[in-house]
Structures are given as structure tokens and as C-alpha cells.
Amino acid sequence: MHGGFTHLFFNMFALWMFGRILETVWGPKKFLLYFLVCGVGAGLIQELVQFIEVQSILSDLGGAGLDYVKSSVYNSRAYTVGASGAVYGILLAFGMLFPNEKLFIIPFPFPIKAKYFVIGYALIELYSGIGNAPGDNTAHFAHLGGMIFGLILILYWRKKGNDRFTFRS
Hints:
Radius of gyration: 18 Å
Strand content: under 5%
Distance between the termini: 39 Å
Largest sheet: 2 strands, antiparallel
Strand order of the largest sheet: 1-2
């Protein structure tokens, strides 16, 4: 139900790779709160984008067979499954707390700073979400939604002045 084995594997790998570091810095309760906020935010953003897409499709169709079209369009876009948005929130948090940490990402033969890795991933998701390729059933805006809600929560914690949530250079 979640995009196949490789999608699930890379989600869990990223959660393990970056999440364990954040949990060490924040503690388990704050980490769980962050993860859940990112996951719920991702779902909300994805549902909002789907609602806008459906409304756009329905307005283009006018009144022709509207009841049948409404049910089939809503049913085909009604499901959002997975924790990818929360994982993208984890990526964002890692990039913000450890912006200059060097990552070796295959296939690149050189290290990439975490801040550039996160920005690159966000831009790819934005491009993929706007491009909306046929047959692409990935919730790109859920990924971005997880990052947005994660950013909001980190900025809130930073504003509160809690030293465990400040940025590191």
C-alpha cells in the first residue's frame, strides 16, 4: 500500500539515518511530537491539494454527468497512505540543525552539505508535484507539507528560546 518495497525501504532508512540523531538531540518525546506534527501536516497539505485538483477538474467538466464524475474523481483521489511526509520533515530538521554536515549520497562521488541536500530534495518534490507526471502516484505535496509543518515547529521552538532547538552552524 505504500509505493512498493523500495519506497518503504528508503523511508525507513532515512528515518533510521537521520531520525536517530534528532532523537538523541531532542529526546524521545519531542522527537515523537515533531514526527507526528510533520505526518499530520503532510496529510493535511496533500488533502488540500487533492481537493483543489478535484475542484479544478469538476469546474472544467461543467454539468455533464456530474454525479458520476464527482464520485469517480473523488474516489480516485481519496487516499493518502504513508509516513513519507513525516520523513521529509525529519530530513528538513537534520538539514536545519546540522546544515554543514557532509553526506555522501550515491551516485555522487563527493560529499554534499546537508543544507544543500535538503534544498535539492525539496526542489525535486516541488518540480515533481507541479509536473504531475501521468502514472505518478507519489504524494509530492505531502512530502512538502511535512517539511513545511516541520519548519513551522522548529521556528516556533527556536522562538521560545529553548537551547535544544536552536540552529547549529
